[in-house]
Structure formats: C-alpha cells, structure tokens
Amino acid sequence: MHKLDRAIRSANQSLVRLGSLAALAIASTGALAQGGDNLEEVTVVGIRASLEQNIDMKRNADSVVDAITAEDIGKFPDKNVAEALQRVPGVSISRDFGEGEDVSIRGTDSSLNMTLLNGQTVATSQWKVLSALSRGFNYAMLPSDLIASAEVYKTPQADIDEGSVGGTIILSTRKPLDMDSGTASVSLESQYSELPEQWDPSGSAMASWKNEAGTFGVLGAVVFQDRTVERHGAEVLGNYSVYNTADTGEDVYVPWGLGSALFKQDRERRGVDLNLQYRPGERFDATLHYMASELGASNSNQNFLPLPGNGVRDGATNSRVDENGVLIGADIDGSQVGSHVAYDVIYRDGSSMDTDVLDLDMNYDLGFARVHAQLGRTTSEGRANDWFYEYFNQANDDRVNWSYSNEGGPSGSFADSGWITNPGDELVLNGYFESRILMSDAEDYAQVDTEFDVDFGPVEQIKVGYKRRDRDTGQDRVRTYASNLDAAGGYFGTAADFWSGAVVSGLHGETGFAPGAYFDPDRDKLNAYFDALPDCRAGSAELCSNRDQTWYPSIFDINEKVDAVYVKADFADDATGVRGNVGVRYVTTDTTSGAWSFSDEQGDYLYDEVTSDYSDVLPSLNLAWDLNDDVVLRFAAAKVIARPSPSQLTSSVSLTPETSSGSGGNPALNPYRATQYDLGAEWYFADSAMAAATLFTKKIDDYIFTEIRAEQVVSPDGVVDIQSMSRPQNGPGVDLSGLEAQLQYSFDNGFGFVGNYTYTDVGDAKTEDGPVTLPGNSEHMANLSGFFENEKFSARLAYNYRSEFFRAKTAVGSLFRDEQASLDAQFSYYLTDQLTLRAEALNLANETVNEIFKVDGGPTLQGSEWENGRRFFLGANYKF
Predict the structure, then answer these.
(1) Among candidates 285, 314, 128, which has minimal Cα distance to 215?
(2) Residue 846 burial (CB < 10 Å; 0-12/13-18/19+)?
(3) Strand 718-730 to strand 704-715: parallel, antiparallel, or no bridges (unpaired)?
(4) Which phi-psi region, left, alpha or beta, contains residue 492 (left: φ > 0; alpha: ψ -120 to 50)?
(5) Choice among 9-13, 322-326, 337-341, 722-726 with the minimum mean pLDDT
C-alpha cells in the first residue's frame, strides 16, 4: 500500500497544478469572450451522445456491425483503441504488458482478424524478440487520439477486403471539410505506473482549417506518449515434462525451468496524422492522408532460473509426489548435478517499431454512377535488439543447493544461498551473444470501385470493383558471438567479475515466487570485456569474437500478390421493411516464400524459394428486416478465408538445443476457410437504449494446427536431433458457434449502463496425433460499464472478463491463458465548455496475467504469472 499512498499524494499535487492550469484557462477564456464576436459556441459531446451515435451506426447498417465513436475531439473512450474495442460484444484483447495489443473476435486468434484504416491494410511489426510476424495488428502502435471511430464488422460484405474469419475492424480518421474551420484541441496528461513508481507525460494536439469556400481543408494531429513499464514475472519455461527423480526413481511432472523475471521498458510513442482534402464541387472529392506512428521500446529482462528438471533428475533428495504424479517438493543436492541454476540478463537498447501510411482517396460522381479510386502504400519496421548474457552454476558444486516446491504453484527456495545477492564464483558467465533483428512489412495497394443506381425491383444499387495488393514481409538478423571459449577455461568469468554491488529486489509482491532478490550485473563491465575481445580470424585458437555475422537461419522473405474482383447489390423493399446486400468476391493469392537452408555437403547456406497459389470464391448475404420502428431482425451467410501468418509460411527454422525444441514454417499451407451464418434480433426500445442478441456459427476448414514431432534438423553445428519440433499443418475442420447478447440503457437522471455477454463453443479438430484446440477462444466473455453524466461531470466504471483460452500444444499437454478480468474507472469534469479535466485508473484490482498447463489425461498445473500493476492518469483537454 505504500506505493499507492505515494501515488495518491503525487496525484493530489498534480491536481493542484491542474487546478492552477484550469484557473489560467478560465481567465483566458473570459478575456477571449470580451472580444469574442468571432468565436463560435462549442458544445462538449459526452458519453451519452457517443453511445447514441454507436447505436445509430449499428441500427442502420445492413451487416452485423458494432461501433465505437469518440466522445469529442481527442476523447476516444479508452487509452488505446484495443482497450476500447474490448467493450464490444465478442471482442477480447491481450494485455501482456499492461496495455491492449492484440484483438480477437468471436473466439478466433488475433491473426485471424483484420484491421483496416480508412478501408485499407495497416502494415505492422514487432519489437519483441520472441514474437513471430503475424497478420494481427499490434494496437500498441496506434494512439487513440488519432481515431474518430471504430466499426467491428462481424459479417463480411463483398466490397470489404477478405482475410478474416473472426471479423474486420475498420478504423476511421477525421476529414477537415467535415469540421468547422479553426477547430482545434490540446490534451495534456500525466500517467503514474505503480510498479516502477514513475510519472510519465503524454499529450496530443489537433487543428483543422478550411477555406471560406469550403473546397480545401487541412487537418493535422500530433501525439506523444511516454510510459515507464515494469513487469514482474514468475515464469515456467519449457513447460512441464516427465522427469525421473534421482532418489526415488519415480516419473514425475516437473517444469524444465522456472524464472524470477524483472522486465523494464521505456516506451516512447510518437504519432502524426495529416489530411489534405480537396472538394471543388459536389462531384469530385480527393483526400491525401499520411499517418506515421513510432514506438521506441528499449527494454531489459533479467531472469533468475532454477532448473528443476535437471535438478530432480540428477540430484533430488526428499522427493514428495502427489496422487497425480506431480512432484510437490524436493531438495536439490548441487554436488550431484551439472547445470541446474541459470541467470539470463538481456539488454535490448534501440528496440522499436514504426508504421506509416500514405493514402490517396478519390471520388467522382458521373451522374449515372459514382467512381471511387484509392491507392497507397503502408510500411512497418520492427527492430529487436539483444545483448544476451547467461550465467550457469559450476557443475557438482555443493554450495549451490536449493529446494523445489509445487503446492499451489511452482517455486524455488534459496534461503541459505547468500551468493544470490553477494555473488562469488558459484555462477560463471558462459553464454553470450549480441543480435539485431529487423522485421519489415510493406504493402502497395490500388483499387477502383463503381456504384450504379438501378431500379431492378428491390435492388437499388450495384457496386463492382477490382483491387490489387502486393505485400512483402521479411526478417533479417545479424549476430555477434564468441568462439574458442575452452581456451579461456570454459567461461568468460565469474559472477563476481561482472558485479559492482547492485541488487535487484522487490519482486513478486503478487506472484508469490522466490527468489525475490538477486545480484544485478554491471553492464559497463560486461561491455568493456566483450568489446576488448579480438576479432576471430581463420585458424584462431584464442577466445575471440565473431562480430556482426549474418545469421541465415532466421532470415526469410515472403511476397504475396492478391487480386480481387467483386460485385455487390444493395436492396431495400419499403413494403416489407427488408433491406441488405448480396455479393460475391473472387480472389487469387500467389505467394513466394524464400529462406536459407544449410547444406552440410557443401558447407554453406543456400537460398530456396517455394511458390504456391490458390483462389477462392467468397459469396456473402446480409439481410436486415425492420419489423417495426423498434425491432430489427438480421440474417447473414458468407464464405470467408484467413491467410496463414508470415511466420507460418517461412521455411526457416529456430532451434533451442538446450530444451531440444524448435519451430519452423510450412510454405505449402492453405488458408483457413470457413462458412458462417448469423441470426440476430435488435430491440431499440427507448432513446439511447437497445437490447440485442445474435446467434453465430462457423465451420472452419483447412484448420491450421501446430504439429509437434521429433525431427532431425540440419544446422551450422551439424545434424541436430530435436525432440519437440513444432510446424504448422493444415488439418481437418472445426466447428465454432456462439451467442452474443447486449443491453444498453440511459436513465433520465444521468445514469446509464452498457453490458454484453458472449458465449462461444468450439470443437476440437481431430488429427492423427489427437485432438487440437482453436487458439485464442474464450468460452465466456462479458463487459459491464456503468456511467453517470450531467452538464459538469461524467464518470464511468468498466469491468471486463474473459475465461481461459488455449495457447499452444506441447509434448505432454496444453498451455492455456487463465481467466482474465480488469476493472477500469474514468472521471471527467467539464470546467468550461472548452476545458475538461480527466482522471482515469486502469487495472484497479491489480489482476495478474496467469497461465495454466493441462497435462493430457492428467492434472491442471500452475504456469507462469505476471504482474503489471495499476496505472493512474490525470489530464486536461482544451478545445478551441
């Protein structure tokens, strides 16, 4: 509680400062008003008006759509777009680092959904070393201040890009000719993060102008957000496996490794948005849009790693086993064991990712038809840098003894090991490399669409179009590593050689894991040592460094060319109240996947390319029946596809020989293909009120699952036997069905609520190796938001819940993310029509992120657990 007390005191000080700012703003407003004949009256739009707009967008749509709109300029409902989208029925997100990043729709993994900005793809990448390139958009890249609305299409239309099994999210930015000239806003905010005990600033500014004739306008926005991230982890590495205990000879379930992890990061997000719009008359309109967003993500990760798998196998004493075969306690005799304690220290300076979009959108009214053309380019680069150092215990050292327990959760106790915080030579540094990974994603696109007004019975409009997309995704990597370590005695030095007295402490306040303190290496000493190593040359026998070596196993390039044509008809029958659209989209996909393979015969790497192609006919039907003024019934049917992720299509491999595991891709994969149906009813029983329910079902064919088998892999070190090699494969079908229900109501006294619940049931795909589960699917999801609003004040309390979901298949079981819940609060005070003061709190209950491991035919065991802490915000928004 001492951290929270300090946060509250700091918050009070900030409120005083904000109060002074507010007083200055009031004075300024009054001075402007005295000579303010040129000022227009500005009305602040609040929660209620935003919810009304959301309802109108849903009600008038022909497809099954949910929408979120900003309350006002610079006032999107949540801190980033993903966190706002989680309030939508059927939508769930991940908050691995305390901030929404990946979005899943209707029980499908984030990579099976699409995010479009103004109707077009946004290139994306990653800053995390272990993150595979995915088609899912990383919402950490997108400040919410740049977005005016977000629409979630649960059912497709022929004129919307294919590529999603779950749903398509269309984000929209503002246009200057739709706004009053001179509209501007400024937002300033300070954020307090509980774990690092740090205040960080953020802000945004937007201004829009148009000429008196209203034919040309300019809108610009800038955003900066800094955040100090700290995450405490009690990790299970390598998952659970079967080991034979040294003292009793029993086969028991034990994790290969545990980790007491401290992650720190300095996030610096910068964004700019620019719109130029030209509309000389009613017939022609053109908008040039440029958006750029950059996330600086320098970070470090320290992980103290007891390795119980090796420890119990070779040096267990006093072993205790429960009725399920789970080892619940043992003492590890270090004198009998080789490697059983490690310490990884990783620095990732300069890690980052950026995205930019340049888009030209043109519309021309020919009278008998309207032509739309759009072309542009979007690019993204992600940089994941590593300075990796790994310590291990000296073999058969009776000073390195510890105890393992797993009663309620796995942990390691080093109560009698003073060297953890005051190191000597118990641990030696014998692992080192430096790595720079560059991930890239770029897409060029061009499309033309034409709408014809017709009078064919109920058919009112025919729309036809063609689109071309050319996408390049790839990864490059260079590594620096040492050779001839044996010449230095098998290690670079002891823990004491690279220490200057600092200690990492204060971990695991919520995760309940030991140890909570350990020595902190001196990075300057590490840099000085490895910078001084000589370069390796042909025939070198001394300890030396191979600097900036191209690391071919991690390099790949994938090109994807997509051509699509479609026709869509919009229809409406006033007599029956039936409206909707029907259409078909025909799409061809050509893929070239290139990667390097190692040939032990020639002793060199060879670049191979694998090509594949497929085509799909994707019909869609959306029916809406306005039964009366208050009730809408809906039916939809469609065929959809979702293409494999780039990381699944590569022929490159990644190996971890320490755990005899690895992963690789499969360039011959087909896309997910699904046939889906929706049936729903919506009742708009009062102003700002709605009750709705939708049944949905999807039959997914060509399901992509991860196959784990033993495999011999050719590597630079020769042929390596990998016992758990993971590769994606197309499998049989899987059925997914569910129910979405939502209720929204605003009372006359200013109170209101929004609630929704989603149930999803998914069957297992039957493969030769047994059943596999669709990743990312939570059976139960729920959201409940209560709010109060009057002319001066608004408040919202929002609760979000999702049940456990499958993540990955392992050799002896399945890894799940445990149920997650979050409680967030938001307060706004409208000091004047122009000035709003805001306060917000995220993760009020300080919920941790947990994983659980389910042994095939056996028990459920605690996996990793991470604490991200609470976050608090204080800010002000001024609208001119």
Answers:
(1) 285
(2) middle
(3) antiparallel
(4) alpha
(5) 9-13
Condensed to tens digits (0 to 9), the pLDDT of residues 429-462 reads 999 999 999 999 999 999 999 999 999 999 999 9
Q: How far apart are CA 132 and CA 52, in angstroms?
A: 40
Going by their DSSP bridges, the two strands 251-278 and 284-306 should be labelled as antiparallel
Q: What integer best gives the mean pLDDT of the chain?
A: 88
User: 255: cis peptide before it, omega within 30°?
Assistant: no
Please say whether the beta carbons of 391 and 298 come within 8 A.
no
Contacting residues for 668 by C-beta, under 8 A, at least 6 apart? 610, 612
pLDDT tens track for 155-201:
999 999 999 999 999 999 999 999 999 999 999 999 999 999 999 99
C-alpha distances (whole Å) from 742 to each of 90, 213, 753, 758, 794 are 10, 44, 11, 9, 22
Q: How far apart are CA 96 and CA 848, in angstroms?
A: 10
| 176 φ/ψ angles, rounded to the nearest 5 degrees | -65, -35
- Tell me the pLDDT band of 601, cut-offs 50, 70 and 90: low
Give the angle 245-246-252 at the CA atoms, nearest 5°: 0
Cβ–Cβ < 8 Å for 816, 860:
no
B/e letters for 385-407, b = 16+ CB within 10 Å, e = fewer, are bbbbbbbbbbeebeebbbbbbbe
C-alpha distances out from residue 713 to 73, 475, 649, Å: 55, 21, 18
Which residues are within 8 A (CB) of 19 and not within 5 positions of it... i.e. 6 or more apart? none
Rounded to the nearest 5°, which phi and psi values hold at 61?
-70, 145
d(CA 611, CA 550): 25
Question: Going by DSSP bridges, is the β-strand pair 751-762/820-830 parallel, antiparallel, or unpaired?
Answer: unpaired
Asked if residue 513 lies in contact with residue 261, where contact means CB atoms within 8 angstroms, the answer is: no
Q: Tell me which CATH code domain 40-234+269-306+340-394+426-879 carries.
A: 2.40.170.20
Q: Is the pLDDT of residue 16 over 90?
A: no
Closest CA to 189 of 879, 878, 880: 878
What lies within 8 Å, CB to CB, of 350 at 6+ separation is 298, 383, 385
DSSP 576: T
Tens-digit pLDDT profile for residues 229-288? 999 999 999 889 999 999 999 999 999 999 999 999 999 999 999 999 999 999 999 999
DSSP 446-480: EEEEEEEEEEETTEEEEEEEEEEEEEEEEEEEEEE
Burial class (CB in 10 A: 0-12, 13-18, 19+), 258: buried
| CA torsion angle 498 503 504 510 (round to 10) | 150
Q: Is 880 buried (19+), middle (13-18) or exposed (0-12) by CB count in 10 A?
A: middle
Q: Which residues contact 638 (CB under 8 A, 6 or more apart)?
A: 155, 156, 618, 619, 620, 621, 675, 676
Residue corresponding to tokens 């908050």: 95
CA–CA distances in Å: residue 759 to residues 104, 224, 671, 814: 14, 38, 26, 22
Cα separation, 807 vs 111, in Å, equals: 13
The CA distance from 79 to 872, in Å, is 11
Q: What is the pLDDT of residue 425?
A: 96
User: Are the C-beta atoms of 406 and 503 separated by less than 8 Å?
Assistant: no
Q: Could you tell me which residues come within 8 angstroms of residue 565 by beta carbon, excluding any fewer than 6 positions away?
A: 464, 465, 466, 467, 585, 586
Under DSSP, is residue 57 helix (H, G, I), strand (E, B) or coil? Answer: helix
> How many angstroms separate the CA atoms of 598 and 596, rounded?
7
Three-state SS for 293? strand
**Domain range summary for the chain, segments of one domain joined by +:** 40-234+269-306+340-394+426-879
Alpha-carbon gap, residue 22 to 456, rounded angstroms: 60
Listed in sequence order, the residues at least 6 apart from 290 whose beta carbon sits closer than 8 Å to its beta carbon are: 272, 273, 274, 356, 357, 358, 359
Tokens describing residue 147: 């977005």
